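Let us practice reading a record.
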Amino acid sequence: MAANTEPSGFGAFFQRYTKTWMHAVATAGLTAFGLLSFVHRGFVLLALACYIIPPIVLYITRRGDDAAGSSMSPTDAALAEHEEPSKSERTEPEGRSATESGADSLGPPPVEPDARAESANGDERESLEETPTANREAEVEPEAESEPSSEPVADDDSPTEPTGAPASESELDDEDEPEPEPEWRVADAPTDTALLDAAVAERSSAVAVGEGGVVATTDGEEWTVVLEDGPAAQGQALHGVDATEDGQAAWVAGDGGAIGRLELDSGRHTDYSAPDDRTDNLAGIAVAGAAGDETVLAINGSGEVLRGRYRDGDCSWDEPATPGSGSSLSAVVLEGEDGYCCDTNDGVFATDDGGESFESIGIDDADGTPTGVAADEDGTCYLCTDAGIVHRYDGSRWTPERVCEETLTGIARVGDRLAVCTADGEIHERDGPTADWERADADATAGLEAIALGADLGVAVGGEGTVIERR
């Protein structure tokens, strides 16, 4: 047991005395008479007597009362009335006096550990006695066995969210934020040579051709030159390119009868230039069918269509067909067995047998010279002209629609989306037949020559190696 360090005797009394009003008055007298000592030295004695005599008198009086056996002397009563409550008394709950808590006038006695434990046990027993029997039985009765739940049980140490709790802020942002709309943006071109035509081969790959026989491809990440001087290594300009339906191969065509086939996966190419010994300048090319079973239509400046059939590495050519009057053909498209071509004399021709034969379908009173042609799966033909007009043919009549005032140089379609490019470097597009034409925010540094669309990729190409992609 630790030794008692509390002051006793006069020291304990004086400690309590210093907390009373009597000590405060004595201190004030000491100060006042001390200041008057500057007037007369006799006030020093008065100051000391004022401060020393009162506690001595009170202590002697208290000792006499204790000897007489009084339970609380008048002196103690005066001290207890005016002294500040001790720390232990301040922590007592409201409504309990120091006497009720077992404390005497000098503070509560320390509680032994055994006593505290006995008190706690007594309170617990009293609480159990007050608790109804049924409730006590419910508290001690083991839980009934239940069927195993199919619901997953959360780990006791892991926090659980209430049912229907909101997702995290990032998840809500991901769910609420719409997918960004694809935009036309200038891409890093692999060449500064003018590019004259382009084709989207698969969802994210494309091919472009141009001056000097350059052939460039992209896998959706970057563009790479795969041929620098054409399929015959003669450096003739290539004016046309198209891809097979499965996107595994592409055909290119250009000046001097240059024709070649490129396997896009491996980069391997085969030269089929000068078909049937013809070296005419070819203005465009169209391909239908999957790789290994391909129909190829090539057009030239003499108004002729050269039809080729590619089967497992062997390519054969039919006799050329002349759909119109012999005017230079400017564009050709082939979708399955259906296709169209146009010439510079306002002539548009259709085929439904894969290019074996053609019939004239107009166009009467065309506004401008046809420069490009596109078609959709149901056979609708779209024709663009150098007067900024797009004509639509639904099988019986042509309907013109003005897009802009500039020269349209190319047109492309995928699904309901239609897009055109201009010689001034602009791109205009619309989402459906009844939608308005909108100009894309494309910053082409040179005029555009051709445009192509795919499900996930769009490509427009032009002078100085300009490439603009829609992603």
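A brief commentary: The first helix runs from residue 10 to 17.
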